[in-house]
Design goal:
75 residues, mainly alpha
């Protein structure tokens, strides 16, 4: 099996799982914020982190994954 075939299988798997991965990330958002608060950073840093996490949107890019995987495997 050629590298391109393996990469295509991986890309297809990512495409199938993308929505589930997004939902899991959304569900973990509050836990990320809570755990970051517990680290002990100051209020400004913590507020900026929380603002960033709340504004962030989970995205997948199967084509980018495909290209990068092939590049890495050819090193």
């Amino acid at each position: 099996m050629a590298l391109e075939d393996l990469a295509a299988k991986g890309r297809e798997k990512l495409e199938r799982k993308a929505e589930l991965m997004r939902r899991h990330w959304e569900e973990a958002r509050e836990k990320m914020i809570t755990h970051y608060r517990e680290v002990g950073f100051g209020p400004t840093i913590t507020a900026h982190y929380e603002e960033g996490i709340r504004a962030a949107a989970y995205r997948t890019d199967p084509e980018k994954w495909y290209r990068r995987w092939l590049e890495k495997m050819k090193e």
